[in-house]
Design brief:
The complex is a heterodimer of chains A (452) and B (228). Helix content of chain A is 55%, strand content 19%. With 452 residues, chain A is an alpha+beta fold. The longest helix of chain A has 54 residues. In chain A, the strands form three sheets. Chain A has a five-stranded antiparallel beta sheet with strand order 2-1-5-4-3. In chain A, strands 7-9-10-12-11 form a five-stranded mixed beta sheet. Chain A has a two-stranded antiparallel ribbon with strand order 6-8. Chain A contains nine helices and twelve strands. With 228 residues, chain B is α/β, with parallel strands linked by helices. Chain B has two domains: 120 residues, Response regulator (Rossmann fold); 95 residues, Winged helix-like DNA-binding domain superfamily/Winged helix DNA-binding domain (Arc Repressor Mutant, subunit A), CATH 1.10.10.10. In chain B, helix 2 runs parallel beside helix 3. The longest helix of chain B has 17 residues. Classes of the chains: A alpha+beta (452), B alpha/beta (228). The interface between A and B is medium-sized, with 36 and 33 residues.
């Protein structure tokens, strides 16, 4: 999980981009740094070599006193404030120069090049030159190179760290912003998924890629909503138009069944046909009722309904059916009040129990809890759980669709419109319904807001 | 019984007329609200079957006009709309019962019968004991006896039996039971009511020589001694 999150493009962008930038910068800047440093070093050495050569020539031409004078002159008015001179006689006594004594770590003999660190942190670089008569001339520079180097490194490091922190901060802000927008979209998608097709993804107004994506999704949702409206309309239009001819057929058969000339066996068949027509008609009227509820033209009544009593009635009614089928309904019902329509709420109970009895096996559990959510409103939680075969996970979101069948190849009865009606009624009452596999069996959970 | 049927759909009107006549009732037909109102105000009927959706004058307007002129004939409203709002509106306008189209003639007959009995029963005082053949129900003690021996019933079974005994020798449909005993208004699905009836039958008819609770094929149930 954590790895997948790290691999998400947003994380990659925020972590990898600064890192990559740092690496690229380091690779590009390091040779420059090295080169300019070496160049500086070379310049210092060249200057020293030149000076020593000049002094040596001066000595050869004018002798030791002139050399001393020249050195004193240079010490008093140095061309380079970092210049260091020391002239010793053969006994090691100082003749001239601005160094107090022979620097530690430098051997007293001719050296083409030395470099020692002094106590003040500066380097002393230079040459020792053995003059005639064992005199030693030391010419050097207090080199700021190491200090510059350290300074440069500190600067570079702090710049890098600061850069990384800044990148990180910008990255994290970007992630948070991005995730905040994504999560806003996700909540909307959740409510669209749970059936509220009036919801659309929010646009930030920035007109960026996310907005563009959201706009496209929104137009896709518009299209889906239109299609769904169309199918809803078609099914209710069919139900509406078919009801009349079927009703007239029913009337014919009803009269035929009362015809005294009818053989008992024929009468039985007519009665069976009537029962089937009645089933068809009740499907039609359920479809029409569903259409009216979904269209919102069915305003629920706002009575205070004792939900526990409604469910107790439904459980009592269906317990006998369950027992007949070798099942049992175990009900745990807490008191709960809901504002709404008693008949419709009973229909919810009836359809859920009907479904559990038809598709389940073994026990059926009904639970009504009055859970509080916040202090202002209460939510009545209702669960109907059977111990039947359940529903394949991929079918779970669909069982609240009208005429949905879990197995299209199978001719066994599907969910019809019972659960679709349940969803419509629950949503009419401002509630939510969802199904989950209880393993074994199916659990349908209903949440209804109840007045505090 | 003399019954007025106000129904604009000719086919449905004929269907009702034939069904009621077969059951031995006298039927007058009115095809629109104006004729219906005129007949209802001028002739003495025992019951009126009134379609809710009528040309010219709306069914509920006729009902209000009737009740406004102190005509208390029981009215059964027919409607293609089956939802609670419509039912409530119908009953509030002064209807006595409400039946959703399409319906079985047996359902209509059973309901008209009940309306008729209700009118005649209103004159009697409150009853404390119900009796059908050798089945006795004491409404105060909430006890039931058959041939003198006590029968234990669940509260719902008691209510169910009470409803059946109050409508003894009448056909009571499943929908009427759901309305009368459970007080819910729509078609009971599957055989929920049947199961409760057969449980009740097992208790009251067990070991009895004459069964009292009969299933009427295609209609519902009847409590009483066998008529044939």
């Amino acid at each position: 999980m954590a790895w997948r999150r790290i691999r998400s493009p947003v994380y990659l962008l925020t972590w990898c981009l600064p890192l990559a930038a740092a690496v690229v910068l380091a690779l590009a800047l390091w040779p420059v740094y090295r080169e300019s440093f070496a160049d500086l070093n070379k310049q210092v050495r060249e200057a020293i070599a030149e000076e020593i050569q000049g002094l040596d020539e001066h000595y050869h031409e004018k002798g030791i006193e002139a050399l001393k004078e020249t050195i004193d002159l240079r010490v008093r008015a140095p061309a380079d404030p970092d210049a260091v001179y020391l002239l010793l006689d053969s006994d090691g006594h100082k003749l001239a120069g601005n160094l107090a004594g022979w620097p530690n770590g430098v051997p007293r003999q001719e050296r083409p090049w030395f470099s020692v660190m002094q106590t003040d942190g500066n380097d002393l670089e230079g040459r020792v030159f053995e003059l005639y008569d064992n005199r030693l001339l030391l010419v050097g520079r207090r080199s700021p190179l190491r200090r510059i180097d350290q300074h440069l490194r500190t600067q570079l490091w702090s710049a890098t760290i600061f850069g990384l922190i800044a990148c990180g901060a910008i990255g994290i802000t970007a992630i948070l912003l991005f995730r905040w927008r994504i999560s806003k979209m996700a909540t909307r998608v959740d409510s669209i998924e749970s059936g509220d097709l009036t919801q659309r993804l929010p646009l930030s107004g920035a007109g960026d890629e996310l907005d563009e994506l959201a706009r496209r999704f929104n137009s896709a949702f518009d299209r889906i909503a239109t299609l769904i409206d169309g199918t809803r309309h078609i099914s209710s239009a069919i139900a509406h138009d078919m009801r009349r001819p079927v009703a007239s057929l029913r009337n014919e058969l009803d009269e035929l069944s009362r015809d005294s000339r009818l053989e008992p066996a024929s009468r039985e068949r007519v009665n069976q046909a009537l029962e089937r027509i009645d089933e068809m008609l009740s499907t039609f009227s359920a479809l029409l009722r569903l259409a009216r509820i979904e269209a919102g033209s069915f305003g629920p009544r706002h009575d205070d309904i004792d939900l526990r009593a409604v469910w107790q009635d439904a459980v009592d009614l269906y317990e006998a059916v369950a027992v007949e089928r070798g099942m049992h309904i175990a009900a745990q019902l807490e008191p709960a009040t809901v504002t709404g329509d008693r008949d419709l709420l009973f229909q919810v109970a009836q359809n859920l129990l009907e479904n559990a009895v038809r598709h389940g096996g073994g026990g059926i559990e009904v639970e009504l809890r009055n859970g509080s959510k916040g202090s202002t409103s209460n939510i009545a939680h209702l669960t109907v759980r059977d111990h039947g075969g359940g529903v394949p996970p991929e079918a779970l979101p669909h069982i609240f669709e009208r005429f949905y069948r879990v197995d299209t190849a199978r001719t066994s009865s599907g969910f019809g419109i019972g659960l679709a009606l349940v969803k419509a009624i629950v949503e009419l009452h401002g509630g939510r319904v969802r199904a989950r596999n209880a393993e074994p069996g199916l659990a349908v959970e209903v949440e209804l807001p109840s007045p505090a | 019984m003399r019954i007025l049927v106000v129904e604009d759909d000719r086919e449905v009107a004929r269907f009702i007329e034939r069904g009621l006549k077969e059951a031995g009732h006298a039927v007058d037909l009115a095809a629109d609200g104006r004729d219906g109102l005129f007949l209802a105000m001028s002739e003495p009927y025992q019951a009126i079957v009134l379609d809710r959706m009528l040309p010219q004058v709306d069914g509920l307007a006729i009902l209000r006009a009737l009740r406004g002129s102190k005509i208390d004939t029981p009215v059964l409203i027919l409607s293609a709309l089956g939802d609670v709002d419509d039912r409530v509106a119908g009953l509030r306008a002064g209807g006595d019962d409400y039946l959703i189209k399409p319906f079985a003639v047996s359902e209509l007959l059973a309901r008209l019968e009940v309306l008729q009995r209700r009118v005649s029963a209103n004159t009697a005082g409150p009853v404390t004991t119900l009796r059908v053949a050798d089945l006795e129900m004491d409404l105060l003690k909430r006890s039931v006896k058959r041939s003198g021996s006590k029968i234990d019933l669940q509260p719902k079974e008691f209510q169910l039996l009470e409803f059946l005994m109050r409508h003894a020798d009448q056909v009571v449909t499943r929908t009427m039971l759901l309305e009368g005993v459970w007080d819910y208004h729509f078609d009971p699905r599957t055989n929920v009511i049947d199961v409760h009836i057969s449980n009740l039958r097992a208790k009251i008819d067990r070991g009895a020589t004459q069964p009292l609770l009969h299933t009427i094929r295609g209609s519902g149930y009847r409590l009483g001694l066998a008529s044939d």
